[in-house]
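anyone seen this seq b4? input:
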Amino acid sequence: FARNGAIDRWEGVVLFVLLIGYIVFSIVMSRRESKAVQQEYEEAFGVSGQKQGNWLFDLLLIAAGLAGLVLGSRWLVNSATLFAEALGVSELIVGLTIVAAGTSLPEVATSVMASIKGERDIAIGNVVGSNLFNLMAVLGLASAVSPVGITVPPAALRVDLIVMVAVAVACLPVFFTGNRLSRWEGLLFLGYYVAYTAYL
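predicted toks r here
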């Protein structure tokens, strides 16, 4: 879609429809696995996977946490963007570094806490789901509502999109090696990001 220099409106609609299809597929598959998952949860923790506690209070905590993350991320992005623009950095670089890092901080916090608490499925699901949502919902909707679509800068086509695809492909053998992302592999990907940011 990006090779012609723009994500057109119809391409944005296609991306968003694909996301809806993926969500429906995921829900159907998860409902089929629900009994097995509950049994596994009970064997691992000695308790049933059924809902316990005050679910309304849990929802309020989730809403408050999300609101705090969104507010903090907005402050970070706005302040950092103004600072970077004052230094004469291009909008693409700001988006690829400061804005991307700022909007990803909630995901980093969620994944780190999930890993510390042993809920590693949440950490992986958060990362994969966030990438799918960004590509198909954020980019798809933004392209669909824009009269002329979204222009893709030539620099992004030359380097950044290639790096994004290459890193995604590099994840596959890592994920399939024992179905586990080891500490050194995590440090390797972190090193990739530091090198990419330094290059930018």
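The helical segments are 9-45, 55-86, 91-116, 120-145, 154-176, 183-199. The chain has a mean pLDDT of 82. kinda curious what u guys think
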